[in-house]
Amino acid sequence: MEYIVFILFMGIMSFIEVLYFKKKNKIFFILVIILYILFFGNRGIIGFDLGHYYPNFHKIPNIFEMISNMRFKYCEYDIGFQIYIGILKVFISDFNTFIFITTMIDGVLMYLVFYSFSLYPVTSLFIFIGLNGMIMQINLLRNIKPIFIFLYSLKYLKNSRIKYFGINILNLLLHHSSIIYLFIYKILKYKKIKRNFLILFFIIGLLINIGSINILTAVVKGIYYILIHVPLTDLVTYKIKYYIEYENFIQMRPLTFNIVEKIGTFILIIRYAKEFVKYKYAKIFFNLYFIYLIIYLYCRGIAIIYDRFEIIFIVSYCFIYPIVLKKVNKMMKLVIIMCLLLYSLRIVSENILPFKELEYRNEYFIKDEKRR
Fold it and tell me: Which of the four pLDDT bands, split at 50, 70 and 90, describes residue 255?
């Protein structure tokens, strides 16, 4: 119930921002960020915490012990995230306090990114929470920081290649999936994707998904069967075979009601694509959305790609929708935000509420219980 209330609250804040503020309001956004931190920072030990974050937090010593032992890896997490925990453990030893502080750091990163790049920062935060942010804040603590550090690095995309790559190479220490940010540099800088090409690209991808045609999987299998006859490729072929056989690698994700949202979003973006050129950074986020389409439409048959990267690039919505909202009339603004709200409620109802282990457990309002 708490998650539903918070989504409704964020929807109302988005309505207020879009309908009553003519420009960004820093104080209003800061207040919303503070409420975000208070809500998620006091969520208790739930979800992945129970089997992963909570025990691993206690395995990792503080940074001084790490240096003294000359050992920086104590669990399966990326070394940068373990060092990050080690630094925080100089000051804290309680996991609930860790959750609050790490959520506060997330909030600061969100403020820097959304206030810098979005026309409606509160609405961007609302979209992020509704689409995947709430699930990430509960189950994927390690993923949020690399995403927002990458988004912050976009301010250097045009003028400082060294800073962009430097930030994202360091980002790799927090989560290995950040390697993708190094490879999409050229795509993000691309000046213009032609409208007709984008429409054709979307229609073909849609037909492939409706027909459950698994093109990418066939390509990967083809590469595997070629490489097994090539000397010195044993390691590569072993990894491909491993994913195919043991990681549920070849699995076409079923189409759901989400496809209706994807079509609606695409129509809105195509309708207002010409307006994007008027806003700084808009082309970058349009290109980020194009990468998201590639993953959503053409990589659904490769589970490891779809599951790990779809959640990263859907953040493009957080910047594209505010541009669209800026151009439409008041009634259309209401319709779009209401659709986003209903869609967000549906995601929470399907992906969070049915699971007892994800139940909100604010430590200030419940009695201490023995952890399961």
Answer: low
